[in-house]
Write a structure and sequence with these properties.
Layout: H1 4-16, H2 19-22, H3 26-40, E1 58-62, E2 80-94, E3 99-105, E4 113-119, E5 125-126, E6 129-131, E7 139-145, E8 148-162, E9 175-180
Antiparallel strand pairs: 1-2, 2-8, 3-7, 3-9, 4-6, 4-8, 5-7
Length: 181
């Protein structure tokens, strides 16, 4: 018994060529069989349109909060006491050129005290130690940041007080680092 495919192929061949031509013309029959097979395996296609866009990316993240900055000792005769923390870092990613990191503080520091920050960078130019004691408006800490990313860049804080400052109770300040143009 012939399977369906063989039966169909023979039917196609018989309908296109008379029976007397099949025996002497085997190569022609092979061509006809191939043409019939093409009709059975016709394929459909579909297309889709995909919209693409890259928007401006400006991301900054910090590793956590610095430790407490507590002044509890001084050098005899020194007019300024200070303590430093270098335990935090930041990471940035941007696809824009000439970006900068600005820093601000939520409330000014008490009279006779200062809070300074140094934000290092391998992709831009650090301003070094910047006094943010009264920087309720942002001040530049890093400028000229180019496209790309950098991670684990150090942030250093220095808390200083004049020797004439009396005891200051525990306080906290929120420091904001912003990646902007």
């Amino acid at each position: 018994m012939l399977d369906t495919w063989t039966h169909f192929t023979l039917h196609c061949a018989k309908s296109m060529i008379s029976c007397s031509m099949i025996r002497p013309s085997i190569p022609l029959a092979a061509v006809v069989l191939a043409l019939c097979a093409l009709d059975l395996h016709a394929q459909g296609t579909a297309q889709q349109s995909v919209s693409l866009e890259v928007k401006a990316v400006t991301k900054i993240a910090v590793s956590g909060n610095p430790g407490s900055l507590i002044l509890s000792d001084a050098v005899a005769g020194a007019s300024l006491m200070s303590v430093e923390d270098q335990s935090t870092s930041y990471s940035v990613t941007t696809n824009l050129d000439n970006m900068k990191i600005v820093v601000s503080i939520d409330n000014p520091m008490p009279t006779g005290t200062r809070l300074m920050v140094n934000v290092a960078s391998t992709r831009g130019f650090s301003a070094g130690l910047v006094d943010i004691s009264n920087a309720t408006s942002p001040v530049d800490a890093v400028t000229g940041i180019s496209r790309g990313s950098e991670s684990a860049q150090p942030i250093s804080y220095v808390f200083a007080a004049d020797a004439s400052v009396g005891s200051v109770p525990t306080q906290s300040r929120t420091i904001t680092l912003t990646l902007t143009n």
